[in-house]
Structures are given as C-alpha cells and as structure tokens.
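Please predict the structure of the following assembly.
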Amino acid sequence: MTQLQAAQAGRLTQVMQTVAREEGRTEEYILQGVAEGTIVIPANINHQNLTPRGIGKGLRTKVNANIGTSTRYPELEYELEKLQAALDAGADAVMDLSTGGDINAARRQVVANCPVPVGTVPIYQCAVRAQAEHGALVQMTADDMFQVVEEQAQDGVDFMTIHCGVTWEAVHRLRQEGRVGDVVSRGGSFMIGWMIHHERENPFYAGYDRLLEIARRYDVTLSLGDGFRPGCLADATDRSQIQELIIMGELVDRARAAGVQAMIEGPGHVPYDQIQANMQLQKRLCHGAPFYVLGPVVTDVAPGYDHITAAIGGTLAATAGADFLCYVTPAEHLGLPDREEVREGVVTARIAAHAADLAKGIPGAWEWDLAMAKARRELDWKKQIALAIDPVKARQLRAAKNSAEEETCTMCGEYCAVKIVCEALGKAR
Amino acid sequence: MTQLQAAQAGRLTQVMQTVAREEGRTEEYILQGVAEGTIVIPANINHQNLTPRGIGKGLRTKVNANIGTSTRYPELEYELEKLQAALDAGADAVMDLSTGGDINAARRQVVANCPVPVGTVPIYQCAVRAQAEHGALVQMTADDMFQVVEEQAQDGVDFMTIHCGVTWEAVHRLRQEGRVGDVVSRGGSFMIGWMIHHERENPFYAGYDRLLEIARRYDVTLSLGDGFRPGCLADATDRSQIQELIIMGELVDRARAAGVQAMIEGPGHVPYDQIQANMQLQKRLCHGAPFYVLGPVVTDVAPGYDHITAAIGGTLAATAGADFLCYVTPAEHLGLPDREEVREGVVTARIAAHAADLAKGIPGAWEWDLAMAKARRELDWKKQIALAIDPVKARQLRAAKNSAEEETCTMCGEYCAVKIVCEALGKAR
C-alpha cells in the first residue's frame, strides 16, 4: 500500500507520524495533505533506513542536491564523497544522475548510504545503455524504458523524474513557438530525439498506466519532469512550457486516482517578474501538486554565480508556492560541480528555502533567527557560530579575520555599534 | 550651482547629458527627474575626472562597494587594491569608511583614484579624532562635526551619509519599542552616544541648515543615514525605524527647497515578506527620493553567505523601488572583507541589480540576456565567457572543468540536450 493509498483509506502510517513530528504539524494535517495529494512523502518500500521527508503544502521548503558520475568523471568514490558533502550541508534529498561507469553500482551505493529520499532520472540509464549496446541513444525500446524504471524501483529509489508530458502535442507547440533555446532538459531531449526518430508517441505517456503500476508497487513518487523547461529568460512561460504543464496536470489526476504519489518539476530560467505567475499556474493547473523547481534562475548572464541567481528566484518561488528546491551550484552552465561546489550549492538553496519559510510563517523558522539576533546582541560568538546555517564556514571566516579573544569583530573594532549603544542606553548585554 | 538647482532652473548640464547617454534615456527625462528630486547625480564640483552616475527613478539599479582602513588594518595600500577590485568588478560607487591610519590621506587617494562617485560617513572621522585627542568619542563638539563635513566636501566627496534623523523623538520611540537588537548602525550609535552624553539634540538635525549650506556649496548629495536600521528580522519595520523615516522624509523636502540633492538609506535586516511594504513606505514618506538599501538581508542565520541573503532581498527591493544597492560581502557579521570578498560582493550585488532591471524593463537589460541565450544555443563558449557578468570567474571555472577543444561541457558531455534537440529537429545551430 502506498502512502497515498493509506491516507486515502484514512490510515495514519509510521512514515506520516515521523513527518508530522519533524514538521511540527499535527498527524491529521499530514494525513489530510497526503490524502489530497498536496503533500508527498517519497518513501520506496525498499529504501532501508530512510528518514522520510514530507514535501508540500505548509511544510518546510525542502532542498535537493544532484550528484552522479559522468562519462568524463566515472569514479564512484568521489560521487559518494559528494553525497556526504550534500548530507553534511543539510540536503533533504539527493538525486543520483549517474551516466558514467557502473550506473547500477552507483545507484545502489547512493541508496545504501543516503538516509534521505533518493531520486533518479531512469531515461538517463536507458540512453546510456542504448548508446553502449547499439551505438545510438535512440536505439532503445519502450520495453527497455519500463524495465529500467522497474530495476531502479526495486533498488529503493524514492522518486523518479519521468518526462511524461513530452508528447507530440507539446512538441508541435514547441515548433510553432520558435524558441531561442529550444530544449535544455537532458531527459526531455532524449524523449524528443526518440519520438522523432521512431515517429511514435512518448512511451511514458502512451503507457502511463504501466508506469503507474510499477510506481504503485514500490511506492515510488513520480516527479513529472519538465522537458520544456525554459533554458533562457526569453523562452520562459511560453506556450510549449505551459502546454506541457497542462498535460502534466492531467497526469497528476490519473496518478492520484491510481494511488500513486506525484509532484511536478518546474523551471528553469524565469525573469523575476514572471515567477509568481508560474507558481500560481502550476498550483492551479496541477490541482495543488507539490512543485519541485530547478532554480528558477533569474538571469542568463551569471555563469559561475548560478547558485545565487537560483537562490534569488528560489526564494520568491518558494514564497509563492514552490515546495522543493533543486540546488544549483556555481558550476552550473560550465561543468560538473566538485565537492566544495556541492556543499555551497546545498547551503545556498537552504538559505533560499529558509528565507521563504520565514516569509510563509512555517513553524520553527522565526525562532531560529530570533536566537541568532540575541546571540549577536550579546556578542556571543560561540553561539553565533553554532546557530549559523553553515557553522564550518562561519567559524573559518571568523577565525581568519579576528583573534580568538576579541569581543567585537574587525569590521568595526572598538567602534562597535552594539557595544556603544548598550553603554549609552545603560543596558546590560 | 548644484545639479538640482540647474535642473530646477530648467538648465541641462553636461553631467546630465552624460547620464542620459549612459542610461539610454532622453535628456528631458534626466532633467525632469533631477528637478523633481527622484533622480540624484552625486557629483562634487571638486571630484576631478568623475564619470557621473545617475541614481533613481527609471535608471539602471546601481551598486556601491564599501572599503576603508580600520584600527586593525590601517594600511592604505591594501584599501586601494580593494578599490581597484571593486571598480574592476563593476561597482557604480565606492564609499571610503576609513577609521584607521591617516584618514585624510585615505580619502584623498580614494577620490583621486576613483572615476565613479565616492561616498563617506563624516561622523566616523569625527569620532576617531575625538577618541585620539580627548580619549572618548563623545568628546566632539557640534562645530567639529560640521568642520569634518566641510573638509571632506572640499576633498571632492560626492555623497555623504549623515544620520540627521537620529533625533530625540526617534530615540524615545526606540526606548519604548523594546528592540531585540537596538542599534547596529555605527554612525547612528555615535550620534546616540553623543546625544545621551551631552543631553543635546543631534547637531545635524538642529543645525540642518548649516549642513545644507555646505552641501550646496560643493554639490554634495546628502545620503540621509538610517541610524535605526534593523539589525535583525525581529526589529524590522518597527516604530523606531518608521519614525526615523518620517523625519528623513521631512528633511528631503528641506534639502530640495535648498537646492541640495538628497537620497535615503534603508534597511538592513528585513523578512522577505516585508520588503515591498518597506519600499512603498520609503517612496511615499520621502516623496520619491532615491532609496539606497543595505541588503536587505532576509535571514539572520547565514553569516558567511550574507552577500547571498542580501542579493535575495536586494532583487526584491530593487524590483519594488530601491534604486541603489550597497553591496554586502561574505565577510559581513564576521569581520572586514578582503580583496576577493570585495570582488564577490560587487558581482553578487550587480546580479541582484540586473535581475531587478530585467523585471522592471530598464533599457538594455533584456538584450544582454538574449545575447547570452543565443551564445548558449550556439555552444559558443568564447561568446558565453565574454558576455558573463564576471568573465574572469566564468573562464576559470570552464577551464578547470573542461578541456579547451570540447564543444559541450562536463555536466552532460556527449548527452548534451542542446546538441541532441538541434539534431532531432534538424536545425542548424
């Protein structure tokens, strides 16, 4: 029985109880959210030692980190170091996007070493296999696609990105639109390449019931992938993007009816003034399904700083309804991130998530900032470091710039406003 | 004659013509904005070789970088390196906040080497002098304060932060409010300390006409400093902050009537959901005066990442009306920034400014992103690097992660969506 089926039957599971406790919400709140599909809890029945995370309405905004081998960097060991870096930095979920080396081994190791939900994009492995076995990624069959989904589900993957909305209807709209950047989703490009080559409909759309059957068996949460994610500001919110979103909304209804949890993936590159509309559209068209956004990055011109462009967009997105932020690292648009960039990507996305949680009034968010404010006022550096979202970095910077015994910091030194005003007002600190 | 007096008399100056050209606005637009005070052009008559920058309504959002010596780091040479780093990174203005070593020499060197507007906070030098000569920073006279303002004006400083709104009325409100963080503005703390010690009104408020007379003589733009800037989310938008803003609004009217350009400084630490209201309040209470914001940072808990918390808040602020962003560096709340942090702070603030300019439809903003989108689609890496907001960093990261001849990047390698879809759709790149 999936979490959704249980909730639909009014049955509270241990997984739901854990989420309720971690979120500071009542069990009834979680039960109702899961039942109506506005909350998902990705928890594959085969993922051992999982600490489940709820994603959706009224819950803390969650953060995902992407890792995985590639053709050029096939070493699994380093990816496991990146996994640890992501977990240490506070990631709520990790996606294994491996396309190099032994992909099965990578996924199994990631699942085994990851206490938070693990996601994948099965079509990647499918395409890599076809390339290796037949010399071209389009040389996969529809059966191959479902087989990979099933294999990965058996391995305990909690959520899977599947580009079900990349249909002929949407591809026609893409051609009519005349985009600047066409398609930048890798999975989306595989599907389009396959469809055009074979002149057939997307198997994950045509055979959606088969997909739902597998997902239900393992309680895999479907993350309906946005193959038409805009890859530049000029393509944002265009007809092909919204066409795909409409189709995905319909597929959410079908997933819910089949007892399968589903969320929606979203943009991408979006101008700041279009983000709120995008969030509202997704919530309306997809009947309140949780929204998992990649960014959105708010300008195209900042390679090397796209963790920041994504944090700017992510804060507004999460404030306006997004539930789950995929991290973006400083390496985005330039290459694969290294361990330090993974760490920086996770912390930056967590800052966006937390800033939004403060704005949305999520339980517990305000108290954290208040504790820090008091530590600052008391010039209590130990407490400030302990309360920092990244205590390691805060400690390093403080140590590099100040001697340990100093009460103030080198920015103002003896001319510290906090000290001066406390003295002037005759207050104790 | 100040720029404001000229505009009030309907006279277009060379300075206004330069600004019109750089902004892609008509000369009439600039003339009218300066005349009504919604645009300021800080341009001291003694600042040689200045390339003026307009700040305000309908113009590109500008970015300021703070540099300056301190007691612990009194070396002028390093501050000049930081000045150069800020200029190389694209700062539109630089404030010299020196409090260590030879402050006069520092300021004169900064003005001489800075082609963009230079700002200062004269009360800093005043306090340091009093500390050195009399052993306590409160041991300055009102005359000392005006004298330092005059000296700095003579040296060519284009804009000065003066905390004129820190009056007894506002201090009483602060006491009644019961803040968590009291006062975190250094200049504000000096003023409050002085007022309480001497039991006298703020000389810059009581003697505001004398201040205006000096500012008018050199065309110094007054940047009315927010001494009650909230230092934590819990204190944002409280009665003391808004009381000071009301007083500053009245002082803007008096400045305009005296032919003196004026802008307003703003928060600070502000929850994301209060930023728009803060911007609207400032515009309304201060009759459209340009708004110069420090951040706003949207959470207290991210020391080491406050360039990012400020970019998140700064984008929303600038979209909602702020005209001028003071950079925040990763060193904020921990110590004085080094050269690399200055660079990172400027670029990050420029990203926030540009994201807002895209949202506001500022002339030229959209074209930049469109050029980058086309370069990405063409997999033209040379052009992508050249168009990057920080070409140095983009080039470094690209080189570190990829070999020079590669067409794609290591994130996707041969599985590049752009390539695959172009081929599938039969399009040329």
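Chain B is about 50% helix and 10% strand. Residues 143 and 218 of chain B are 19 Å apart (CA to CA).
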